[in-house]
Amino acid sequence: MSPWPEGARRARAGAVRTYGDQIVDIYTLANVNGIEVRIMTYGAAIVSLKTPDRAGHTANIVLGFDTLAPYLAGVPYLGATVGRYANRIAAGRFSLEGRTYQLPCNDGSSSLHGGVRGFDKRIWKADPVSAGDARAVHFTYVSPAGEEGYPGELTAQVTYRLANDDTLSIVYEATTTAATPVNLVNHAYFNLTGGLQRPITDHVLMIDADRFTPVDASLIPTGELRGVAGTAFDFRSPRVVGGRIGDADEQLKLGRGYDHNWVLNKPAPHALALAAVLEDPGSGRVLEVRTTQPGLQFYSGNHLDGKPAGPGSAFAYRTGLCLETQHFPDSPNHPAFPSTILRPGETYSEETVLAFRTVK
Predict the structure, then answer these.
(1) pLDDT value at residue 181
(2) Which of 357, 350, 247 is nearest to 294 (CA)?
(3) What H or E segment, with its residue span, contains residue 212?
(4) 324 catalytic, yes or no?
(5) 187 is catalytic
(6) CA 339 to CA 295: how far, in whole Å?
(7) pLDDT tens-digit map of 141-180
(8) Of these residues, 324, 327, 334, 351, which one is catalytic?
(9) Closest of 233, 240, 359, 228 to residue 288, by C-alpha
(10) Confidence of residue 17 (pLDDT cuts 50, 70, 90)
(11) Confidence of residue 101 (pLDDT cuts 50, 70, 90)
């Protein structure tokens, strides 16, 4: 009997090897309605995600490459599982239990997405798992104490589960041997048109959030939770992404567009609740995002520049957007933010569900 359950097919990711001469595998999950997701062991990253449009034509809706080389060349976090701490930590520094920790600063004066070699640049162990009528792959990475400056050995697990109700759930779990900040995120760039060189500024977006966290010049939260009412950050009702992206707003200038954390309206802490709805009017594709996380980073692809970073296609300005469900940036330095500290004996547990449908 094959060790690979039907719908969880494994394939090699080309002939390119990674750090330590390790082979990269790609796992394919497919459901009965034609949705297909491919996930590789390098970065536990979504390589492609195919869904049908309103006419039933299937196309890829996330930015990704057909070969491994562009990922190794430094293309920014496409589809990857980001950690140990996603987003920014100011000055790469935090204090915990009477000790100050210094992380590498890989984004100006900040540590971004886990540092120089975060979880997006590591090889994860993959195991197909049984999940009822769904197809699933379970990824594990053990981050040793001191890696990228973080305390404690962290065992991180991510499970991707594609169901026949057209949902892709991403479940994160982690345990640690010492107190440490943890913030695990998927960094997929979405483009629901199915044409990955088309701009995302015509997409229509709703974010269920009354507030966001404004930032300083280093894109570090100031600590304020600012109301979105009457601003370009008000997506409580569906709005075109590009409608106010060019407003003379200091926050938009600092982010070069949208690159901010929204404080999600939650019926209860850690409830799995609707966070955002994204629609492409042209194709009719709709993506609903539900999460247990308290925040959502909406990034409008402001730093995509079309420059090749190795073999394969490069992606032009604002041809992908991210909806990163997360804890708030720089939380270890903001005691008023929801805590991101995981301690021995505890289990970090978060879930994000991507639901796909079409409208006429």
Answers:
(1) 98
(2) 350
(3) strand 209-213
(4) yes
(5) yes
(6) 12
(7) 999 999 999 999 999 999 999 999 999 999 999 999 999 9
(8) 324
(9) 359
(10) low
(11) very high
Instruction: Decide if 27 contacts 128 (C-beta within 8 A).
Output: yes
Residue tagged active-site, from 113, 138, 187, 203: 187
pLDDT at 6: 45
Which domains can be identified in the chain, with CATH numbers? 8-358 (2.70.98.10)
Residue 97 structure tokens: 């239990």
Q: Other CB atoms closer than 10 Å to residue 145's CB: what's the count?
A: 13
Token readout for 243 is 């409608």
Note the pLDDT tens digit of each residue in 289-330.
999 999 999 999 999 988 765 444 589 999 999 999 999 999
* Residues near 200 by beta carbon (within 8 Å), at least 6 away in sequence: 190, 191, 193, 241, 300, 301, 318, 319, 320, 321
pLDDT at res. 183: 98
Q: What is the pTM of this model?
A: 0.94
Amino acid at 9: R
Average pLDDT over residues 211-232: 98
Beta-bridged to residue 290, according to DSSP, are 274, 353
Identity at 96, one-letter amino acid code: L
Burial environment of residue 2 by CB neighbours within 10 A (0 to 12, 13 to 18, 19 or more) = exposed
Residue 345: exposed, middle, or buried by beta-carbon count in 10 A (0-12, 13-18, 19+)?
Answer: exposed
Tokens, residue 81: 């599982």
Class of residue 100 by CB neighbours under 10 A (exposed 0-12, middle 13-18, buried 19+): exposed
